[in-house]
Design goal:
Layout lengths: L2 E4 L8 H7 L1 E4 L8 H10 L2 E4 L7 H5 L6 E4 L9 H6 L3 E3 L6 H16 L2 H9 L20 E5 L3 H12 L3 E4 L10 H7 L2 E4 L13 H6 L5 E4 L8 H9 L5 E4 L19 E3 L8 H19 L11
Parallel strand pairs: 1-2, 1-3, 3-4, 4-5, 6-7, 6-8, 8-9, 9-10, 10-11
């Protein structure tokens, strides 16, 4: 029997399968285990089930001599030093596919909300500022027939493109290993909406910087449901304030959450949601199942159903 440390309560019944096979400790607080706690628990563990808010770096792994498997409860695994895990013979798994539709739905919900200024409209009713039907206020952007630029045409990017077909949008995308696409500069210049779906890597860190924002159309709206660090937040604040772009809708920020007083929190024409891309009951329960399947396989030294290091 192995010892597993699960860094948060997870929805659905799948953790019971893990408990039936192994000793399982679950961190029951709402906030993540502090680094010292993660080190102490990791030091005794054979398996870790981590969240994207848990930083698993070489220093942590040095404290985890027994560790055989890390199962990340996310499709992105930028919180894990993959090279450090691989060099120590630790298998690392993630949870793709089961959250693709939920995340694509959220990206499209953000696109529509930003285009039609839903937060402002809802607030105007709430505070009693809705006086009568007005021809010129508030005027949003037409989504039907507009051009959508997808940066990262992978699983989620393709699912967003499918949704865009229903709105008869023209869809542009960046090049992938499987297909040709537009250079980023061209996509930024030609799109009314730009939606980010690439992973966070050294190459995509601040991919959307001041220069990239300057290439976008003045009315364009940026949607980010990928990772906060892909967008330079200082440059985004400037672009929203001086009207370089029309608006932005972010499900992910850097850091998460944005602390009180962070300059982006008061930027105009900005929607921020609290990293809820995969937050449907069905998606989260499937993520739990997949994360448990990955961990069970890794602990038995089998290839995980979704293993990200080979
Ligand atoms: P995926 O299938 O691996 O797709 C990622 C795509 O990005 C691939 O097509 C990849 O191209 C492309 N890409 C890689 N580097 C790029 C670059 N420098 N420029 C442009 N495109 C690049 O991953 P996915 O399942 O769609 O998930 C995408 C990301 O969404 C995850 O990594 C995660 O960070 C984020 N996510 C967020 C939430 C949320 O709650 N907000 C939920 C789920 C996922 P190749 O095919 O050529 O490698």
């Amino acid at each position: 029997m192995a010892l597993c440390f699960v860094t948060r309560q997870l929805p659905g019944p799948a953790l019971d399968q893990l408990r039936a096979a192994h000793d399982v400790e679950v961190w029951t607080e709402r906030l993540p285990p502090p680094p010292a706690e993660l080190r102490a628990r990791g030091a005794r563990a054979d398996g870790l089930l981590t969240l994207l808010s848990d930083r698993v770096d070489a220093e942590l792994l040095d404290h985890c001599p027994r560790l055989k498997a890390i199962s990340n409860y996310a499709v992105g695994y930028d919180n894990i030093d993959l090279e450090a895990a691989t060099s120590r013979g630790i298998r690392v798994g993630n949870t793709p596919e089961v959250l693709t539709d939920a995340t694509a739905d959220l990206a499209f919900a953000l696109l529509l909300a930003a285009a039609r200024m839903l937060p402002q409209a809802i607030e105007s009713v709430r505070v009693g500022d809705w006086l009568t039907w007005e021809p010129g206020h508030p005027l949003g952007h037409e989504v039907h027939g507009a051009t959508l630029g997808i940066v990262g045409l992978g699983r989620i990017g393709r699912a967003v493109a499918q949704r865009a077909q229903g709105f008869e949008m023209t869809v542009l995308h960046t090049r992938t290993s499987m297909s040709t696409g537009e250079p980023l500069e061209l996509l930024l210049e030609q799109s009314d909406f730009v939606s980010l779906h690439c992973p966070l890597t050294p190459q995509t860190h601040h991919l959307i910087d001041r220069a990239a924002l300057a290439q976008m159309r003045p009315n364009a709206i940026l949607i980010n449901t990928a990772r906060g660090q892909i967008v330079d937040h200082a440059a985004l604040r400037e672009a929203l304030t001086d009207g370089t772009i029309g608006g932005a809708a972010l499900d992910v920020t850097d850091p998460e959450p944005l602390p009180a007083g962070h300059p982006l929190r008061s930027a105009p024409n900005l929607i921020v949601t609290p990293h809820i891309g995969s937050a449907t009951r069905v998606a989260r329960e499937r993520m739990t199942q997949l994360a448990v399947d990955n961990l069970l396989a890794g602990l038995e030294d089998r290839q995980m159903p979704h293993q990200v290091n080979r």
